[in-house]
Description:
By secondary structure, the chain is of the alpha+beta class. It has a domain at 61-160: Immunoglobulins (Immunoglobulin-like, Sandwich). The protein is built from two helices and eight strands; from the N terminus they run ααββββββββ. It has helices spanning 2-16, 38-56, and strands at residues 61-63, 67-74, 79-87, 95-100, 105-108, 119-126, 134-144, 150-160. It has a four-stranded antiparallel β-sheet, with no helix packed on it. The N and C termini lie far apart (81 Å).
Amino acid sequence: MKILYFLLSVLFLMTSCTNEDTSKKEVVSSIVDENQSEEDLKAQSEEEKILEEAAQNLTTMSFDKLEHNFGKIEEESENQTVFYVTNTGKKPLVIENVSASCGCTTPTKPEQPIMPGKKDKIEVVFHPKPGQLKEQEKTVTVVANTEPKMVVLKIKAFVEPRDKN
């Protein structure tokens, strides 16, 4: 490694001491890990291209709320809320995935891209199972073409036993 730095330094000194006009020359250099194969370098280059393209398609989003509290509800009841998401960026917003932390919570995501300035909804249904009582807090993770890539929404409820009458 020291030899590489020495050779680069000598090369720099040699080229900087000439009287030639270097403004029209292009200098291309790269430092390559000796253990990387050509296939690894190509794969790394492709991955970098994909990341760069993805970064160019990032947008921003905002929600009308990040948390919803159902208050007191009964077990085995169906409780629905809606989180409105607005595309606050300049590129189409693509909600890639919406997942819940528990099987008792079912989110539904927008299927079409949300254009800049427009909004859509993420519907969340909470259906507490028998015995799933007292204070409950569940999360819904939204993954989109934004930075940050994920946003976590919360739902809360105090679940009481179902009235048997």
